[in-house]
Amino acid sequence: MTVDFHHRLASVASEIEDVLVAIFDVATDPPVPPRLLSAMRYAALGGGKRLRPFLVVETARLLGGDQATALRAGAAIELVHVYSLAHDDLPAMDDDELRRGKPTLHLAYDEATAILAGDALQTLAFETLADGATSLDAAMRAELVRLLARAAGGAGMAGGQMLDLEAEGRFEQTAELSAPAVAKLQAMKTGAILSCAVEMGAVIGRADAPVYQTLLSYGRALGAAFQIADDILDIEASSAELGKATGKDAGRGKATLVGLWGVEKARAELERLTGDALAALAGFGAEADILRAAARFTADRRK
């Protein structure tokens, strides 16, 4: 892993933090209730790798896309991500107590505030994308909104979470637990947003159809690899390393490829998917090295 990658990841995270702060600081009429705004800021600021916005920014950079647009689009996808974490951590979902090294939103505030903050974070994401400050190109803004809405909705993240709950046996209808079914669940729940980040960067960079499909293949492979790596870390890493509770997936009956196959076979699949992501970038030169490093980071990360 190159030092340049870690430096760039941290640099983009800092830039995204600045954009998020600016978004929260925009005055509204009527103003956001102080407790709600405080909870939104608690959820969104001061933590996380910011990998999803990083993928937006670096994919756009690869293609010469406007960086101010990419940063605002990256902030929008991060708002959707943190809203999903706030809701996933609720007692009705995963009932977690620790997120990014601090108490989960519903413990720091309360369940009702956490639900409303998540709702407001999600809508703020789409307001950000639709705002003319993101781009003067209205068609581009509309496409960014469409991509993120699709990835976050019933055929994406929200639908994947429903399948995840079904697999836990929460309802009368239990989800199938075959490897293809689990892979589909994870592609919806986790992979869709990661792949969307790459797609958004490609739109900002005005990729032609062949390049767009190439980058989509990269994003899908990276998204699948990310979830397997996350499931392995749930077994092997400590709570202090991850900043969240570990070892809970098996106890909940979570549908994971690690649970179906064991760590050794899951790690082999992780390596295969990482290889697929790298192969997708074969037509690019050194200008895509940061995206290559992102794929390796996804496989090798310890948090």
UniProtKB/TrEMBL annotation:
* Record keywords, A-Z: Isoprene biosynthesis, Magnesium, Metal-binding, Transferase
Tell me a GO biological process for this protein.
Answer: terpenoid biosynthetic process
Specify whether Protein biosynthesis is a keyword of the entry: no
InterPro entries, per this entry? Isoprenoid_synthase_dom_sf, Polyprenyl_synt, Polyprenyl_synt_CS, Prenyl_diphosphate_synthase
The domain of life is Bacteria
A molecular function (GO) held by this record is:
metal ion binding
Q: Which Pfam families does this chain map to?
A: polyprenyl_synt
Which cofactors does the annotated protein need, by name? Mg(2+)
Which is a Gene Ontology cellular component entry for this protein?
A: cytoplasm
What the entry lists under SUPFAM superfamilies is as follows: Terpenoid synthases
CDD domains assigned:
Trans_IPPS_HT
The Swiss-Prot or TrEMBL record describes its family as follows: Belongs to the FPP/GGPP synthase family.
Tell me the protein's name. Answer: Probable farnesyl diphosphate synthase
In its UniProt entry, the species of origin is given as Labrys okinawensis
